Each structure stands twice: as C-alpha cells, then as structure tokens.
C-alpha cells in the first residue's frame, strides 16, 4: 500500500506497525498454501538501461540485481567486499545462462560506512564512458549489535542505512548522471512506523545513543530503535526528495519511491556483528517468527524491482510514497497546496476514526495567549524598545519559557482543528508565530521549530506536521491575499512614520526628500513589534515573484526603515530582508522605482559602520547583498558596475582598515569581504594594488596581542585573497614580487616553527595557500627572483625545503600546461571544427555581413586574401568589397584611403574601423618599405596613418567607432623609444618582445589621443585586448613551436568576441578612451598608456613621419 508522510502519535504508529506486521505474517503464512498469491516479478525490456544496486552481493540486493540483469539492463553491483561481489557477479551470469553478456554485470566498491568511499565511487563513475543512470536501488544496510561510530562521526546504522545513500544520490544528481525519467528506489522497512520522532531532542544528551559508550553491546530493543530510525529517515527523505525534484525542470520526471520489501529471511539476522551476535528471548522469538512466516529473498526483491520498472508507480499521483509490500489495502485522502499556483496532489492519507484531543483549548484562545506573551515582551525593558540582545537574561529566559508553552498550546489547537483556518485566523497565525523564526535574543531553537511547523500548516493546511528547522525554505507559495492582509494589518501600522526617502503609498524613491530619518523619533515598530522583521522576511520568502510588485508599497517602507536604522542589529535584520527581496524582484522594477540607488546608498552606509561592535557581522551580511544588487541591476558591460565595485574599495574596505587595525575579527571580516569584491572586479582589481598588497602581506604576520586561532583565520583569509589578486593582475606582480615574497617567507617561518599546532587543519590549510602563492610568484617573476631563491636554499634548508620543493618552475609549468589542456578539452572538441581556419578579421567580417552591413576587407592581394574573400562571400548577406592595402608601405596606405573615399564620394560614411593587422617576432632584418621596424611599422605606424587618412570621413559619420587591436603586451614597454623603431644599431639591440610591446603601446596612445581630441564630435575610439588567440601572427616561427603555443591558446572565434562587442555594444558611448579585455568587459591599462603628455607627443610624431605621404593630415596636428 502507498503511505503518506503525515505524522502520527506514538500509540497510533505502534498500532499501525503491529497491524501491518500481523497482516504480513498472516499473508506469508497463506502464500505457500496459495501459489497464485505469490507476487510475480514484472518483466520489462531493459536493454540499453543502466542500473546501480547497492549491497548487491547477497540477499534482496542480489536478487534485485539478478532480476534487472535478466531483463537486459547493464547492472553495477555496488558492494564493499570485492571478493563477495565478484562471486555474486559470476553467480548472476551463470544463473541467467547464455542470454547474459559477461560485461553486462560490473562491480564497483562502495562502503556505506565511509563517506570517502561514496565520494570515490562518484569519482570513478565520472570517469566512465557511459554515465547515464536509469535506475538506482539504495538497498545496502544492516543492523548492529554494538555502539559503533563511523570514521565520519555518525552512528553506524544511521550512516550505512541512510546518510551514505543520501550523499550518493545527491552527488550523482549534481553530476548530471540521472536520465530524465530515472527511478530512485530506497529500501526502507516496516520499522518506519515505530520510529520515534526525529526532532531537536535527538541532538542532546538524552538521545538513545548517548546511553552507551563506544564499543558497548546493545540490547535487542535498542538495536531495533536505531535501525527503525535510519529506515524512517530513508523513507521521509524519499518523500522530500521527490517533492524537491518535481520543482526542478530537468528532474521533474524522476520518480522517487521507498518501500518495505516484506519480512524476509535475510542474512542480516545471522550476521555476527548484527542480530546473529546478539541474544535475548525477544530476539529469539523474532527470529522464530521470521523463519516461520518470512519470505525468501527472491520474493523480497519483487517490490523494489516493481517500483523500478513498472508503469503504475510512475504515475504522478503515486510518486514519492512509502510502499508496504502487500498492496491490497488502500487508504485514500487528498489535500490541496494553497497559493497562486494552487494545484491538487493526490497523496493517499490514512483515515483514523478517532484522534485523541491533546488540548481542548480553542484556536482563538491559543492565539490570544500568544499575543498576550508578545505584549509582555515589550515591557521587559521598562517600556523602552526591547533592543536585540539587551534584555535582562533572567527575565528573558522566564518569558521565553512562557512563550514556548503558548506556542505548544497553539500547535495542539491547530492539530485538533477540524476545519481549515479562515483568512483572519491565517493572518493571526502568521503574524504571531513568524515572529519567532529568526535568530533573535527572545527566541531559541525550540520556539523556531514549533513556529515553523505552524506557518507550514497555514500555507499547506496539512496536519500532523513534524518539521525540521529548514522546512520554511522548502514550502510552497503563499497566496497574495493572505500576504497582503499580514503586511497591511500587522506590519504597516508599526511603521507609521515612513522613511523620508520613500513614498509611503507607492514604494518609490523621493528624489528631493525634505528630511532624513531621525534616530530620536518615536519608533513604534521597536516598542510594539519585536520580530516584525521576521514576519516581513517570511512573507517575502513565500510569496510568488509575480506578487512582489503588487505588494511593493507594503514592503519597501519598512525595509528601508530597518536598513537605515542607527542601531546595527536592526540594520543586519534589514539586510537579511533585502537579500530575500533581491531574489524575488526583477531588475526593471528596482530601476523603475529608483529603489536600486536607494538600496546602494543604504548598504554602503551599513558597510561603513566599522566602529561598531557589530562591524564584523555587518560586513559578512551586507557585502554579499551589495554584490547581489550589482549583479542584478548592472550588466557586465556597464561602466557603472566597475564604478560601484570601486566605491566598495575606496569608500569602505580601505578606510575600514584604519579603524580595524587593532580589531582582528573586523580585519578578518573585511578581508573576506574584499575577496568577494576582487572576484567581482576581475582584472580591474589591479587598480588598487598599492592598497591591497601591503595590507594583505602585513596580515600574514602574526598579531602579538590576538589569540593564535584568530590570527590564523586572518592569515588564511589574507592568503586566499592575495592569491586571487595575483592571478587577476599577473602583469603587475613583478613590481610587487619582493613585498609578496617577504610576507610569505615570514609567515612560513612562523607557521613552521609552531610545532605545537603543526597537525592543526588550519595550519595545513595556510601552508597549502603559501605554497600556491609561492608557485604563482615564481611563475610570474621566476627569472627576477633567482638571487632570492639561491639565498633561500642556502639560508635554512630545513625550514624552507618544503616550500621550494613544492614550487619548482618545472613542476609549476607542467601543472599550468595540464590545467590549460584540461580546460581546452572541456570546452572544445578534440577535432577542431572548421572555424579554426578563420582568423579574427574573417570572423569579424562574417558577423558584420550577417547583419547586412557593407564591409571593406582590406589586405594584401595574395592567396590568403582570396581564401578569406571566398569564405566571406559565402555568407550571402550584406555587401563585400576588397580594398587592397599593404601596411608595410605608407604610400600604399594613402592610395587605399583615397580609393575608399572616392568609392564613397556620394555618401561619405564610415561607421566602424577595425585596426587589426599585426606582426609578431619576425626576423631582425625585416623592415617596412619606408625603413621602419616591421612590427612597429605594421602594428602602430601603418594603423595610425590609415586612421588619419580616413579621419575626415569619420568626422562626417554620426558616432563612428574605431577599434584598435592592442594587447596586454603594452605592459612590456613603459614608453615608446622612437630611435628603436627606425633601422639602426638601437633597433637591432632592442629586445623583440619590447619592440612588440611598444608597438601596441603606441597604438593605444594614438587611440586614446584620438578619443581625447574628438570625442565631443562623436568619435568613439577603443583599445582592446582580444585574448591569447590562435592566429597566423606566429607565421615566422617553426611549425612545431607554433603547434605547442596553440595548445595554450583560445580559438579564433573567441578572439572576435571583444572587438565585436566594442564595435557594436549599446554601451558604446561609455567605451571611448577605455581598454576592453576578454571577454567583452572593461579592464584597466597601464597608467602611462593614458598619460596625456605622452599621447600628444606620440600623435605629433605620427604626423611628422607620415605627412609627406598625405599632406592633408597636417590639419589634425593642432587640437
């Protein structure tokens, strides 16, 4: 029979358990006499399906695996004993005869008494060529006669029978292994009925397992109770898992069932570490009963197999249930999930002719008593607001005891209530009980558990609720009408004085507020509404997203009153409510009402309150909320996003370090907050290296007046943050190498010499981070640190050997190569598709043509050009023209520009110019036609001259864009040495990499000066770094060398992302004069690339070198 999850009193549960046992025993007694009553194993074609059966080397698991294999399934026997599992495998193959293939049955090791074994199983599964799972039978388990704790710290039966199956199933779900219509069958037991309730009392010293020491022998009744608890958890979890999966699109058709397979003559009763090694008259009686009336393992496997393959248990109304083996008794009942998405589910529910009333008190009277207790709470502080964590301890404890009694009485009244509550009663229940669900001084875990159970009843109208603490986050939607009643009749009257920056009746921002929130005004919500923030948070958590806008005027005023309160604990409550709001609210609503900017301001105020005793907690809760708001309302290509993130650094974190220098706990919270900001900034964090690196390296040193544990937490947090910053700003790290190295070495000495705590996990974590930082530093600045490394080896080989042994350049380079190759193979197939034949200009041209643009493909007339033109012509859209140009010849550039201008004489227009051509590391003897270094002549001089020749046309075009293909290599040269770009001894002595770097720096200087001079006339000039891309610029190098380089590079189509974004993004007006980096975001270039004096000097030099070829460009010399 299917059985629902509703809670029963202990007498009723025991009665049902006894009744079911007697019925099964009687049925099993009759079965041998009436062969037709045998339950037959269903026969289904499972060819192409894959199944996992845990505990499959004997008993029910073995018979289940054999049945699935006989139907053609690929079966994996997940067992802890490999020898027995192999015997079972051979037995299945032998039993099924010639129809079985030898590789159809596989063995994988899985010990449910060890989480590490479960994780290893999942890792092994990840490596399989065929990972899809159609069926999983969580069967493994047992009963123990000894008080035993697993290596993971859990009671042995509970972990083996339940927790490991939870970990296994969820891990495989997360890995994406389950088929869309997979079956999950959890083998439970009839002992489910007799299990005691699982609540907070199981965690204290009164629990049954606390009566025995590790290794003590357990009596039979205790063995059964522990076994029953694990099997009850297995069944309840199955129901919860099914409900959760139904709400997720990709898993909504997965079927989860739990079952009692019957009273089976299982080997579990003879195992020496289980029932076989225990004694007692009650145990002997039970064994006799099983041997007399029990069924064999083959019959015991029928129900798990039936649930795994038959069509009936996959019906929507029969999913997520507990199945008793004998299905000839049917209970019926229905309940409705309330809410704007109301839908009816048919879960069979037991019908009982009599349920004893545990409390005769009416619902109204119980609500009145609880309301009276809440009124008394306001008097604990002599009529003042009952500030958080400030009420007298003794009086508060007395009040809390009284409140939990009232809550229990209300729960009893609800459980015996014969009808669904009317709207007024629903509103009162939420308004009084949701007060207790937060983590405030006037409530505790007991109050929270009872209160959450009652609000669950209000939303779902389900009786016999026994809920864990986190069930509030998992319940269904609250209907808009009830939510409106609670907010209107309970929350709104407490906030009679609206926040001065918010319209009380619309929830919109006031753009010219006449006042500010006065901390001395009478604040009714503090005096008469303790816990009102919990009510607001609960309502927000449970309404539908579509209802938020309708309830906006009821939500926003109290929210901002909390956010801007002068007392930090209330601000923290406000931030918690804001986090819930951001999960429910679309960005358009926040922007339309102006609440986004108001919330930025309020959160920034909370983050700047660093002198408070609550500073650490404020940073921990407000920073994630601020970043969530940034992610919601500011897209990645919006320059305001970078500005908002930068404000966090300049206005909050860096100034906060001045206040927190003597408060280590605030420093820890500040560094943890900085880590979040740095991850959001990406390479933009290099702007603040002068502030970050000195502080973080200072934090690595021990603090003399702080506890060692606190200091260690600060060191770990700082090391994690420093590592991220180093990876974000690699090109800048050589400048900081000595500062970082000094901090790492001093910290390493402190950690290594602390022998008392050398095995502490925090010490191990810190040493791992220091080694990673050291390796990263060597990868970035290895050649510059040769002297320091040599001195380090000679200084103290005992202390530093572990550090530099784990940080050799060879090992690091191999690790980098492996990670890059792995990342490449994850994102791109082993056989490169056809687009790898295209270069960035080809792909950019294809994108423009695909949108119907008129495209001029400019290049030399050679075989490569013909191939590109043919590829572009196949697009079949837009208009393609070829413009012959040789960037090694200034005369050719001038002729090509004249040809373009004459071809467009009737409609002078150029919307987008992409300066892409580049040379890299050619032979030293290669020069341009005019005697310039080939790299500088093509990458910089030629591109700049072409732009100047086309500038008259660009100035006549509305808002044209010039995209200059720069590079991160601009950081390789701090200035342009103009004597090194003309043939001579200076050029030949110049490092080729520096030559390439100054060519890209010159192009950036020209582009930035172009923007500075003409941005008011609509010109948008952007410098970009397309990424480390597979292109033909390495044509001068040997093929084997280029092949190795290409392994470490991104494909060409990714190189087109950033230039296309810069050329077409709607945010184009904000990109002028900026530096764009992969993939389509604004980065930070070197400061000297934006130096106005250098920009002017370079502009003049370009004109000096080229005006003899085109005298008209002299008009652009002066600003």
From TrEMBL:
Query: What are the UniProt keywords, alphabetically?
Result: Oxidoreductase
Q: Which residues form a coiled coil?
A: none
Oxidoreductase is among the record's keywords: yes
- Any Pfam family hit: adh_short
Q: Name one GO molecular function term.
A: oxidoreductase activity
SUPFAM superfamilies in alphabetical order: ARM repeat, NAD(P)-binding Rossmann-fold domains
A single Gene Ontology CC term = TTT Hsp90 cochaperone complex
* InterPro entries xrefs: ARM-type_fold, NAD(P)-bd_dom_sf, SDR_fam, Tti2
Q: Name the Gene3D superfamilies for this protein.
A: NAD(P)-binding Rossmann-like Domain
Is Cell wall biogenesis/degradation one of the keywords UniProt gives this record? Answer: no
Please give the family membership noted in the entry: Belongs to the TTI2 family. Belongs to the short-chain dehydrogenases/reductases (SDR) family.
What protein is this chain from? WW domain-containing oxidoreductase
Give the organism's phylogenetic lineage: Eukaryota, Fungi, Dikarya, Basidiomycota, Agaricomycotina
